[in-house]
Amino acid sequence: MTRFARIAYTETVRRLQEENGSALAGQRQLRDGDAPDPLGPDEREFISGRDGFYMASVSETGWPYMQYRGGPPGFLHVLDRHTVAYADVRGNRQYISAGNLRGNDRVALFFMDYARRARLKLYGHASVRDPEQEPALAARLTANGTDGRVERLVVIRVEGLNWNCPQHITPRYTERELAAVRDHIARLEEENAALRARLAGRDEPPAGG
């Protein structure tokens, strides 16, 4: 979390940490170097399983803008230890995030797994690519079934990452997750019914007894 802390813990933030008695925890995260935080196996698995995330960008007037991006699980691809990317398909045609990225490439990504009460935050620099100019990358980013007209490819170089604690996360489940639970319950009920039938057969008296 070293690089994440160096970006997030500004002078004002550190003063507030001191005022509230949490400066020591912040200082421990600032002790080491300033290299970008790498995406490890846990981050890669977590990101690859998400069917949506929130992305914040900043306009030339300084206002932040938050947008939700959704798609099939894994539509945000982990290209390597420091890079993620996705195919940006046509939406409501407001182009606010795309416009913001022309003037400021800084973004923040927020991933939620409500069912498992986990969340991950990323800081990064985003670059916009033309899918016609990079067909191999476009094919890779749409291979999992991304639906819609791809207008651009967004490649994000990760600077920092941070896992949040599960406190205050209310468990919620997608329809896909609920369907898996229902299937599991149905299989258990079938197994229980078969077991009860076998046990009932053992309790029956022998024929002619």
UniProtKB/TrEMBL annotation:
<dbReference type="InterPro" id="IPR011576">
    <property type="entry name" value="Pyridox_Oxase_N"/>
</dbReference>
<dbReference type="InterPro" id="IPR012349">
    <property type="entry name" value="Split_barrel_FMN-bd"/>
</dbReference>
<feature type="domain" description="Pyridoxamine 5'-phosphate oxidase N-terminal">
    <location>
        <begin position="44"/>
        <end position="141"/>
    </location>
</feature>
<protein>
    <submittedName>
        <fullName>Pyridoxamine 5'-phosphate oxidase family protein</fullName>
    </submittedName>
</protein>
<dbReference type="Pfam" id="PF01243">
    <property type="entry name" value="PNPOx_N"/>
</dbReference>
<feature type="region of interest" description="Disordered">
    <location>
        <begin position="18"/>
        <end position="43"/>
    </location>
</feature>
